[in-house]
Automatic annotation (TrEMBL):
Assigned protein family: Belongs to the barstar family.
SUPFAM superfamilies: Barstar-related (SSF52038)
Source organism per UniProt: Deinococcus metalli
Entry protein name: Nuclease inhibitor
Annotated ranges, domain Barstar (barnase inhibitor): 29-122
Length: 132
């Protein structure tokens, strides 16, 4: 079975089961951004601020988000951003998520030009936690 980290990042991808465990085996740094309570652009920026551990001086706009995600001095060569509850966010906020998708994909493309990997992994909460 091919693991997601065997391949170059390819857009927004579904997260594998246990992404943190798999990433550790590939020496991929994982950061988690939770979209569960995101409902506007400001809360998108706050979710990235918290999830990525950004400085309070982070500009909180699309350009600043692109700049920080594509900065090789900030991130290791292999980074996965786990976008938690992103599908639900997309269904609630189509235009906002479209703008964010563009920023994320542009940052991913810039990382590739810098010979870095930026995986954008969508993780949805289990619909039934007792499904086991």
């Amino acid at each position: 079975m091919i693991q997601i980290f065997d391949e170059a990042p390819a857009g927004l991808q579904p997260a594998p089961h246990d992404p943190r465990v798999i990433a550790a085996g590939y020496q991929v740094t994982v950061r988690e951004v939770d979209f569960g309570a995101v409902d506007d652009k400001d809360s998108v920026m706050l979710a990235f601020l918290a999830g990525l551990g950004l400085a309070q001086s982070f500009g909180r706009n699309w350009d600043a988000l692109y700049d920080v995600l594509s900065d090789p001095g900030v991130w290791p060569p292999k980074l996965a951003i786990l976008l938690c509850d992103y599908g639900h966010f997309r269904s609630r906020h189509a235009r906002l998520s479209s703008d964010l998708d563009r920023v994320l994909l542009d940052a991913q493309a810039e990382a590739a030009r810098q010979d870095r990997n930026l995986w954008l992994l969508i993780e949805e909460p289990d619909s039934d936690p007792n499904a086991w």
